Amino acid sequence: MTLIYNNIRSNNGKCEVYAAPFAVFLNRDDMNYFEPDISVICDPNKLDSRGCDGAPDWIVEIVSPSTSGYDYITKLSKYKTTGVREYWIVNPLRQIITVYLFNEKDIFPQTYDFKDKIGVSIFNDLVIDFCELDI
Fold first, then answer.
1. What is the CATH number of the domain that holds 33?
2. Which helix (H) or strand (E) holds 79?
3. Are 109 and 76 in contact (CB under 8 A)?
4. What CA–CA distance (Å, rounded) separates 115 from 129?
5. What's the half-sphere exposure (Cβ side, CA atoms, 13 Å) at 15?
6. b/e string for 2-31 if b means 16 or more Cβ within 10 A?
7. d(Cα 135, Cα 131) in Å, to the nearest integer?
8. Beta-bridge partners for 19
9. 63 and 31 in contact (C-beta within 8 Å)?
10. Is 128 strand, coil or helix?
11. Residue 70: DSSP 8-state
12. Could you say which of 30, 86, 106, 108 is the most buried, measured as most Cβ atoms within 10 Å of its Cβ?
């Protein structure tokens, strides 16, 4: 998370980074919310005292065996249909990262392993090197 925050600040970016627990209300009239592991919000108007009111630009979920179905099915579907631009599912057990770019016309996930360096679509100059992270 620090890597993301530092990249945004060094480029005078307007996005904010939040770690769980941080509430994301995807339906403005809904009382239900998600708590992604990492949320990046680039529209300050979506932030209020409850958390994020609307879709974050980028969400990163770190999968555990007990939440994998929820992350890969339920959250994927909800994030795709509510305006999230980029969704990463990090699976430490299998050492893979699945990246979904929802702002593309055709959505085909890209799968990487922990030896890869992955560019962040919403930031032109941010690359995450999973070899350097302790997950």
1. 3.90.1570.10
2. helix 76-82
3. no
4. 8
5. 22
6. eebbebbeeeebebbbbeeebbbbbeeeee
7. 9
8. 38
9. no
10. strand
11. I
12. 86
Q: What is the pLDDT of residues 30-88, one digit of tens each?
A: 778 999 999 999 999 999 999 999 999 999 999 998 988 899 999 999 999 999 999 99
Please report, as a single letter, which amino acid is at residue 84.
V
- Quick one: pLDDT at residue 108? 80
The CA distances from residue 11 to 1, 4, 15, 59, 99, in Å, are 16, 11, 10, 20, 23
* Predicted TM-score of the model (pTM): 0.91
Residue 38 to residue 4: CA distance in whole angstroms = 10
DSSP 8-state class, residue 75 = I
Place of tokens 């990090």: 90
- Could you tell me the strand order of the sheet in which 86-91 lies? 16-19, 38-41, 58-62, 86-91, 96-101, 110-113
With a pLDDT cut of 90, the percent of the chain lying above it is 67
Q: What total number of domains does the chain contain? A: 1
Residue bearing the bigger pLDDT, 133 or 130: 130
Helix (H) or strand (E) holding 8: helix 2-10
Range of the domain at 24: 2-132
At residue 41, what is the residue type? I
- Cβ atoms of 78 and 34 within 8 Å: the answer is yes
